[in-house]
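Hey, quick one: can you model this chain's 3D structure?
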Amino acid sequence: MTSFNIERLPFDKGAVTTWAETNPRHKNWPVVYTIEGSDEIYVGESTNVANRMFQHLAVEQRQHLKKIKVILDDRFNKSVCLDLESQLIRYLAADSKYKVLNGNHGITDADYFERDRYRETFNELFEELLKEGVFTRSIPDIVNSDLFKFSPFKALNTDQSVAIEGVLEKLFEDLENKTDTPIVIQGDPGTGKTIVAVYLMKLLVDIAKSQPDEQLDSDSMFSDFFQQGYREQLTDFTIGLVIPQQSLRKSIEKVFAKTPGLSKSMVLSPFDAGASKEHYDLLIVDESHRLGQRSNQPSAAQNKKFTEINTALFGNDDLSWTQLDWIKAKSTHQLYLLDSAQSVKPADLPAEVTAALVEQARQANSFFRLVSQMRVGGGTDYIEFVGRIFAGTQQGPETFGNYELRFFDDIAEMRESIFEKEKVVGLSRMIAGYAWPWASKNDPTAVDIQIGNVGLTWNRTATDWINSPTSLEEVGSIHTVQGYDLNYAGVIIGPDLGYDPVAKKIVFHRENYHDKKGKENNPRLGIEYTDEDLLNYVVNIYRVLLTRGIKGTFVYVCDPALQNYLRQFCQPGLFSNK
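Sure thing. Here's the predicted structure for all 578 residues.
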């Protein structure tokens, strides 16, 4: 039996005045409410909802809203209402029927007494709202969507909050003093760098558009930045989010298109930023390690574009100019989010360039680290375990709580296990290193990956592959999954990696690595890449692939010696045998 009650009334002063007198709890009880329009919605919580409604009615920008829903429950308290408010905002933003008018600074994820019990009530409430058409999709469908995973309404963990607060303080200090300090946020896979970038974009826009007399529903560590003196510094402030990877960029564009205050035009490729006629006040660069140095580009048009941008910005086409230089030239302030260990091809910025960027930020006290795992259920222990395996420093087997790490001797069995996980939790995919040619790119009937009796094909699309209709039947490459989450990842470690039992180290087999741009020398800069150089990039690729799974990672290893090497780090029964 449900304990909550939903009261409905028009968003009208007369209706609210009458309704306010019908129950003492309309003026003195913690509640959660929504105010809906035809395609927009506002979610709030209050202990005096009648008074709060009068405040909303006085806001000119909300006059077009039509109806109110007030959720009352005898068991509600302030902590419960803050939690429910945040949950509804996150789900509504990702469901995308409505544009959510809230700012994101009040989103919370704090624990409190009997939270699990209250969350059961939240699920019942969701089902009721789903029946009424407020939502259009189930919770599992919403949670597995890119709109949820990259939402600007995510609840931040402590080090993300501290990093954003530090960024804001440094940015406003620079604006006040008319100085420019490069800011760097560094984090391992799964620490939420992209979430921080998206959240910060929304937060800055909300600060800029806030009204001096606006009442904020919730306290947060960012509420001070909505006071006088901050919004004025953001008047006509232009911001762009630069994302080097095409697929991730397209996903973020969809999120921005659904978020009031944000626009897909704010999401840029490095080429967009370099060629823009606009000079940005702030450019936030996600995956900064994937910015490019001068090299042979994927197309003749991009080679020409590189030359044109260099000439336009610097007066010459010196080969030393990189896309990092474009970012600096096209913006007054910069924020770089990076993990140099996720650099996956030689055309990416050299490690010494990103290291210099980090050191510069350290010296300026504008360097922040993200350490808490937001993605992988195995936590930091699992991330470090993967790193140690490739570095050759892992000592013996480990377990990671409920995180499901399994190795398979049979590729067909692993594939079937991924299919089963897809039925149960969704978002389960096969991914692999670029150890086979992409024959199906030109011949859709071709088999790309042949392992024993199992024939597989690469991803048919490079954009939003994870959510494409045929993705479960395909195998994704690094270029389709970097920056994304999966519930379960079935990783094929191809024959591009092997193990030398004499030298006792992982080795690279160039002949089995088929990413042409991933192993191409750079004659423009006079660079030839050795097998050792390329080994570092390929190891980074597998580090990324092995850290995509939220709930678990399944692994099949092609090279027998490498498989045997990995066995020593596995608990008994960790290898699955047909």
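One thing worth noting: The two ends are 47 Å apart (CA to CA).
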